[in-house]
Amino acid sequence: MHPSLLFILTPLITAAIGWFTNWVAIKMLFHPRQPIQILWWKWQGLIPRRQLQLAAEAAEIIERDILQQHMILNEIKKINLEPYLETTAHTLVWERIGPQLRAIPLLGSFVNDGILEKFEGIACAEIKHEAGPLMEKVATQFEASVDLKQMIEDNIASFDLEHLESIVNQVAKREFRTIERLGAALGFVIGCVQVALFWLTGAIT
What we know:
Blueprint: H1 3-27, E1 36-38, E2 41-43, H2 46-66, H3 71-77, H4 82-102, H5 113-145, H6 148-157, H7 161-201
Antiparallel strand pairs: 1-2
């Protein structure tokens, strides 16, 4: 091979090798999905191979560092139920209790809209009074009975890998391309260094 051609081809070849190596490394995050046995070596993508371990570790991190103690309980307590309670009291009095009271012989003739409005006010006040302790009980029971760590772990462990790969590729598409280009650039630099070493040592004249 002519020396000048080797000067040109070497950096190009090493750049292609650098790009291809990084491209394969990215693909191997998810592929192959199922283990492939090649002689004594079992080959499987990093995430499919460690999905259960990643699920357990991610769930532990989320529970420990993100969902801190009593965080769910405190967030549930922040929910403002007042508008819903007023609607519930109105529906309860005018659509449930009112028609039943008016259907009672003799007594029903005394049940007018004014009385139902008073009932609604009483019902609304009592429901709001009981809402706080009830929310406290619901939040405490939820925190005690729901294993969020196990729920998160199960969901991550059963997550469809094809869908996950699609999400990762959409989010990190630009970064993956940058990694591939950096591999090509690094390969090109290495090729240039090799050519320079060949020239300095007299391997190419």
